[in-house]
Recover the amino acids of this structure.
């Protein structure tokens, strides 16, 4: 078992992200940006390294929050390994019947149930269902990807040493040369963000677009986000927005901190409209999103974060200024990405036609 | 001691018959043990003998030669030494071995009613079996779990899913996603396959040749030169491994006739989600690569050897009954 938690082998720095949930509109552009870049080949049909789900909801894989995993007394705690039907998606449609069946307008396009459960769930199945009852229904969107945890239980659980945490930037990667497809990582990951490539028999997960980061380009999900809600940068950069949002202002927090793995993806919790009374008057004392629900997602610190956000909003509404809110608004989109503002279109990315031996020493 | 004439005669006649019956029973028992390949003078599971054969067996676990080779049943138990702790669904495996002038064959038989040769499904795991040897035969036997820093082990692992092969068409895979086409043919995008991961490519042999120097060090040997094949018949797997005597590289033993080494066995039951450290394992047991040939086919001898004592016993009984 690889021990990636030892201080001497731990990362020297940590790439991190902050998602401002008050700006997420659930458009799935991040999901699609990731999908078309990384998971379009065989065995990856069901793989959505980036997903946006409506909260409250069962999410993807279905009911993932109840699947267990994580760390217990510093050791991996095996959880449930998601099934194919719990991911869903990858449907087959009745194209032949509609287009060549001679049935005219009596045939309509629909997914064909192959008996494997894929038509019973999907990566965004319970979109906009949310919680509450009219007129106090509520929901918000939660983008999720690999948390590139400080204590990556996937790597702890991996018996072959294929999963590891990269020393220079803390990205959790996998060595697909040695992965044997044992899937202990899938059981251990409490966020259920590791997928099994059933054609190549290896596990796969978000790689934080490390080839882009190495070229100073922000990850695809962040750069494509039309809502400008994703911050990317180094967590320890005290001048950067991520460090300030997480550590200085305390308004960004990890998802399910009780899982014990130390996520490095953080969220600005969603503010909430007020509840409506039965006579449709406004109940100014009660937020529509139950605080206890937010606490179940982000831990008890979410309350102080909400208070801080509301306090800053009140300051601005009364004519004052807020550096924190200016940071979250991101007037200049470059301010979101710290050192990763390189335009990929300006890079020379002509494909290499000659195999390169990366182990060869450079000729003097 | 004199008995009354009639009584003594009856007693003596009864004693003779008792002795005759006991002799016959002993003869039957000895014949049965011989026919089963069991030497009662030797403790069982004390070691595996690799018998010399002139004719190389086919790379087929059901080859007739294996029915003549005496096997040793090796007890297996759950792996409880290191994470992930578990397995133990298969209690024993029978080990047989033969060798030619330059090749070693090892044959395993074990009970596993379910055939699991797919790892394509998310929660499906394949059956597998492995034999393990010290990297070098010697008086010090390495730790049976993956060896140790100063004495490595060489592991030959057969996998049912590798033997089945990767379907050419992804739509053959169960629990598949349906696709019309895949956009890229660049190898770069087929990670794992591009770097030659043995799980992601069509392997030439279903047996992985692995070396290890302790926990967490298991790696593929440079040469994948161990051949093998398995067959699932009835409710059991039979697996045969074959490798040249000559060592293909570092950490892999050289075999030769007239020498001793050690062998251990591990078995994975895919139906019980066994993989990696979730397995049934044995301790090392001695493997003697002997010069003796395979014993005559015991199956064909069985009937004759079992029948002969009854004929002899019948003859003896007849003679004794006719004595005055």
């Amino acid at each position: 078992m690889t021990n990636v938690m030892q201080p001497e082998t731990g990362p020297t720095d940590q790439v991190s992200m902050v998602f401002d949930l008050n700006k997420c509109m659930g458009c799935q552009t991040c999901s699609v940006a990731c999908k078309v870049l990384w998971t379009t080949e065989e065995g990856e049909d069901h793989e959505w390294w980036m997903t946006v789900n409506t909260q409250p909801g069962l999410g993807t894989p279905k009911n993932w929050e109840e699947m267990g995993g994580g760390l217990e007394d510093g050791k991996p705690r095996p959880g449930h390994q998601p099934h194919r039907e719990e991911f869903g998606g990858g449907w087959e449609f009745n194209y032949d019947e509609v287009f060549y069946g001679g049935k005219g307008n009596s045939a309509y396009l629909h997914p064909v149930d192959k008996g494997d459960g894929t038509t019973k769930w999907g990566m965004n199945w319970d979109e906009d269902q949310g919680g509450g009852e009219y007129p106090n229904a509520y929901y918000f969107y939660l983008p999720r990807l690999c948390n590139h945890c400080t204590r990556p239980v996937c790597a702890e659980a991996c018996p072959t040493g294929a999963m590891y945490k990269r020393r220079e930037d803390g990205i959790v990667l996998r060595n697909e040369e040695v992965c044997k497809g044992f899937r202990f990582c899938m059981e251990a990951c409490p966020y259920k963000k590791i997928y099994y490539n059933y054609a190549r028999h290896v596990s796969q997960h978000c790689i934080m677009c490390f080839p882009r980061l190495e070229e100073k380009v922000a990850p695809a999900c962040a750069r494509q986000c039309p809502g400008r809600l994703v911050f990317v940068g180094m967590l320890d950069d005290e001048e950067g927005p991520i460090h300030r949002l997480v550590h200085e202002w305390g308004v960004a927090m990890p998802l399910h901190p009780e899982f014990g793995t130390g996520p490095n993806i953080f969220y600005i919790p969603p503010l909430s409209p007020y509840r409506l009374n039965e006579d449709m008057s406004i109940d100014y004392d009660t937020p529509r999103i139950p605080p206890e629900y937010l606490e179940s997602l982000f831990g008890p610190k979410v309350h102080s974060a909400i208070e801080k956000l509301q306090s800053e909003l009140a300051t601005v509404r009364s004519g004052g200024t807020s550096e924190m809110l200016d940071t979250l608004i991101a007037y200049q989109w470059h301010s979101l990405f710290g050192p990763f503002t390189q335009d990929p279109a300006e890079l020379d990315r002509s494909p290499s036609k000659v195999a390169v031996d990366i182990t060869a020493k450079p000729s003097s | 001691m004199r008995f009354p004439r009639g009584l003594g005669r009856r007693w003596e006649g009864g004693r003779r018959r008792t002795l005759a019956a006991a002799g016959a029973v002993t003869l039957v028992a000895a014949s049965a043990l011989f026919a089963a390949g069991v030497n009662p003078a030797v403790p069982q599971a004390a070691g595996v003998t690799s018998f010399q054969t002139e004719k190389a067996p086919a790379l087929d676990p059901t080859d007739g030669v294996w029915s003549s080779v005496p096997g040793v049943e090796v007890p297996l138990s759950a792996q409880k030494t290191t994470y992930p702790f578990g397995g133990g669904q298969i209690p024993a495996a029978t080990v047989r071995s033969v060798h030619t002038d330059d090749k070693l064959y090892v044959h395993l038989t074990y009970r596993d009613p379910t055939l699991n040769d797919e790892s394509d499904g998310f929660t499906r795991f394949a059956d597998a079996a492995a034999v393990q040897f010290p990297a070098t035969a010697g008086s010090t036997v390495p730790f049976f779990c993956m060896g140790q820093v100063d004495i490595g082990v060489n592991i030959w692992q057969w996998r049912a899913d590798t033997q089945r092969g990767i379907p050419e068409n992804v739509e053959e895979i169960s629990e598949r996603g349906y696709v019309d086409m895949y956009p890229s043919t660049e190898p770069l995008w087929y990670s794992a396959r591009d770097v030659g991961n043995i799980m992601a490519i069509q392997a030439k042999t279903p047996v992985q040749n692995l070396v290890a120097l302790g926990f967490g060090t298991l790696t593929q040997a440079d040469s994948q030169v161990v051949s093998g094949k398995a067959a699932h018949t009835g409710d059991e797997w039979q697996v045969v491994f074959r490798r040249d005597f000559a060592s293909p590289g570092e950490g892999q033993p050289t075999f030769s006739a007239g020498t001793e080494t050690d062998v251990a066995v591990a078995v994975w039951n895919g139906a019980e989600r066994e993989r990696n450290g979730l397995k049934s394992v044995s301790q090392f047991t001695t493997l003697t690569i002997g010069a003796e040939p395979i014993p005559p086919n015991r199956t064909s001898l069985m009937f004759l050897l079992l029948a002969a004592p009854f004929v002899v016993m019948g003859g003896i009984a007849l003679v004794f009954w006719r004595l005055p």
